[in-house]
Amino acid sequence: MTPDMELALPARAENIALIRHAFGALGEALAVDEELLSDVRLAVTEACSNVVVHAYAGETPGPLEVLATVDDGALTVVVRDRGPGIAPHPDSPGLGLGLPLIASLAESVQLGRDEQERTEVCMTFLLSDGQANGASSSAPAGPVAPADGQDDQIDPTPRT
Amino acid sequence: MSDSTTPEPDAPSPPGPPGPPGPVSLRVATGPLAGPVLNRVASMILARAQCPLDRFDDALILCDAISAHAPAHVRDSHVAYTLTAEERAIELRVAELRAGGAAGLLDDALLPDVGNVIERYSDSRRVEPAPDGDGEELILTIGFA
User: Fold this and answer.
1) Does A153 touch chain B (CB under 8 A)?
2) Structural domains in chain A, sorted by start
């Protein structure tokens, strides 16, 4: 399915705000519940931050792509980069809560690489009445599932 | 890409406000998303380019006109944009227009007693064939002193 919104821009920290604004517009245009929209923006921000910090570490920032598709009562967001893939970073200064946070906000999360070997984080948020009433934000953490055949790339375990 | 919730403490921070974000490509479905998303993205780029407020308003009126009329002239159900901040200017490339779509878009922006909104608020306009040979692109420049 063709995404309803696609953004492609350099993976720089200051560009995350632009992506957040774009999702704000999407949420307002589609009358997404404010609480759910907040969750979406936080999860997207976290996924994009991971790209900025890790995907092109030590290199010129490469592309950051964000795709949003609304279909059948769900909003699916894919954050994509051309970095080497998701791998443990024992020396990372972060708390290691990024992916678990995304999983707790989204209904489901898939990590992997697409057919062009781009790293993807795919998040799905329910837009049904239940979700619009805040059920999504209080729902149990969705599963962090690997994309088919890509489980060796994934380590969603929190790192300290 | 890996998970992290805090930025690197040793990461160098820019000395001043962030500059232009670099070329931003946006592709959005025609419909309720088209106008709001283009306006938000354009606003961020204009602000980061330190566009003066009067031209900021002009540019958003221009974006409104484009997002209102472009859907009638696209190849399929999406409009694609590329926004690039230049020295004292923003380039807005409207892509995935069908053949003749650029002229159609310009014609549609003509308002009685106002004139053509796109021509009035942009500093330059040109039409280029689409890189894939299917249709064309309208390239607008919005300058500011």
Assistant:
1) no
2) 5-153 (3.30.565.10)
A26–chain B Cβ distance below 8 A for any pair? yes
- With CB atoms and an 8 Å threshold, state whether A28 touches B36: yes
Instruction: Tell me the mean pLDDT in the region A25-46.
Output: 94
Domains, chain B, in order of start with CATH, read: 24-143 (3.30.565.10)
Give this prediction's pTM: 0.80
Structure tokens given for B39? 């306006």
pLDDT along chain B (145 residues), means of 10: 51 55 91 94 93 94 96 96 93 97 96 91 96 95 91
pLDDT band at A85 (very low <50, low <70, confident <90, very high): confident
Structure tokens at A32: 């997404």
Nearest to A9 by CA among B51, B135, B81: B81
> Does the model's ipTM exceed the 0.85 cut?
no
Using a CB-CB distance cutoff of 8 angstroms, which residues of chain B are in contact with residue A92? 2, 4
Q: Which of B3, B8, B23 sits opposite A99 (nearest CB)?
A: B3
Residue B34: closest CA among B63, B73, B75: B63
Instruction: Write out residues 27-86 of B within 8 Å (CB-CB) of A.
Output: 27-29, 31-33, 35-37, 39-41, 43-45, 48, 77-78
Distance from C-alpha of A80 to C-alpha of A8, rounded to nearest angstrom: 9
The answer to whether A24 and B41 are in contact (CB under 8 A) is no
| pLDDT-derived band at A147, boundaries 50, 70, 90 | very low
